Amino acid sequence: MDEKTRNRMKELVSILNKASEAYYAQDTEIMSNFEYDRLYDELTRLEEITGVTLADSPTVHVGYEAVEELPKERHERPMLSLAKTKSREELRDWLNGKEALLSWKLDGLTIVLTYMDGKLAKAVTRGNGEVGEVVTNNARVFRNVPVSIPYQGELVVRGEAVISYSEFEKINSRIDEAEAKYKNPRNLCSGSVRQLNNEITAARNVNLYVFSLVKAEGVDFHNSRSAQFDFLTEQGFDIVENRLVNPDTIEDEIAYFENKIQSYDIPSDGLVLIYEDIAYGQSLGRTAKFPRDAIAFKWADELRETVLQEMEWSASRTGLINPVAIFEPVELEGTTVSRASVHNVSIVRGLKLGIGDHITVYKANMIIPQIAENLTQSDTLQIPKVCPVCGQPTEIRRVNDVQSLYCVNPSCDAKKIKAFTLFVSRDAMNVDGLSESTLEKFLARGFLHEFADIFHLQRYQQEITQMEGFGEKSYNNLIESIERSRDTTLPRVIYGLGIENVGVANAKLLCRHFRFSIEALRAADVEELSAIDGIGEVIAGSIYDFFHNDERMEQLNHLRQEVRIAVETVEEEGSQTLSGMSFVITGSLEHYENRNALKDEIEAKGGKVTGSVTSKTTCLINNDTASQSSKNKKAKELGIRIISEEEFIEEYL
Fold first, then answer.
1. Catalytic: 105?
2. Helix residue spans in 548-594 (DSSP H)
3. I want to staple 105 with a disulfide (CB 3.0 to 4.6 A). Which of 203, 270, 274, 550 is the partner?
4. In this structure, is the dihedral angle defined by the CA atoms of residues 202, 205, 206 and 209, taken in order, positive or negative?
5. Is residue 25 scored above 90 in pLDDT?
């Protein structure tokens, strides 16, 4: 193997592993599915040609380690990924004259459910195929998962947890801030399934569709996959839609699914074909990565060539400026498209874009327009040096190996609209009736210049009541909501100020640390702020800069004159019984609503809660004290006690 080929293989392995880590462990995407598949296929070809497979190649490893947020558990049987093809002829040949079941390949989060004596006993995510995360409490609140079934033996099934497109759109419609909206149903579903508080999961309307029976003791299925699905339907499960096919009918059935996906409400990225004859399929064995009894069919993306006409740059509250490609309209999957998000500067540069370039576009999963390839690769597109909204300088910042464009002008109008939107949001001042579009109108008319101006909108009663969409009733409701918002808390105010990197949790953390004194917070230097567990140097710098900006402080003083901040109860020094102690919390809880509630209790008594076990940890709180999670193993290695929630309450509270 020549050096050029080896270096290319190393490069492909590195790129694909980073993309997999982002997708599986961080629920983000740094490249399109189209691009990932193209690079993966290139790597596979090079491995076949050279006979060499690098140790960390994604063709060897399945998935990525799940984040350490929930208890871990090893699967009884490894969950392998499937070999894939985009060729209908290859699917027909694969059948080898046999019958098989053709079904949707749903695009969500794979879950393994275990039932004992007719009751749901356990739910575990796929994780990396070997070890997943236990999400039993969350599975109990999926919309269609039976918590009890007629069958009384041990039953193990695999299914795909999904959030429909319509539900996805509904959830996103309630989020005013564009950059806070979820990118796609798969990411939303993944985050929903892995919540620590299953009340949030319940509100997301997650559904699960079973696609495989792993174990059912004492049941004779007469060697038939169809019989297994019939049995699962009788138990109350929703099963993935499937159709029995043979070499003569398979192409017609693929066409059935292809037509249906145009309006199918459940995210799908292809089809799965599995032999109807169970014994025959099992007799074929498996490769190191793939079972041989099933294969995945990925839609051959409908590509259209077009011309890039413009790159639109859209600014946000944080200053992030997102690129959106505008191209000559083309027909894709039955609709006309002319725009596609390019996400960030890294992707713009990777595609080597230039105005007038000939590009190919497609719809990811037949839904979301994306650029597949740049045929011209002129690489002449200029990254804007000034913000498209305010005309002030921009800068490129690298975060987690991704380059993005930012406006550095703190007074940018785009930032103002987004800043006011955050300020009136539910977790901040909670003002009803001030949507982003309404705020934009008020700002354009000069009603608002700083946050305190919201509390004086009655000055413009006549103008507001004459605006489109407003009348006396809407105006009165708005003023009443504003008056209610005057009574608030310091964490709400701090979060609402929009300090970079300070979300709801950090706002509460800061307020507790400085004993709910805004003066103490304003007086803190970077060193003191950095020392707060959970803050760190970058966030400390953002906080310090905010509170040492004269204009912002003048506006904050104006705001404080308009609101009534509740006086929080601060634990007295004598009650700081956990002072100097450090705890780590993992797994699900029974006595507390969630981990944050227990964390609040510990911190109120002077203790610290950290995310990882170290030699300074007092103890690890985990109701599953015998689990083989990485945190439990680390605690055992360091000789740190592992105690249950009840033991913690008895000993420390």
1. yes
2. 550-560
3. 270
4. positive
5. no
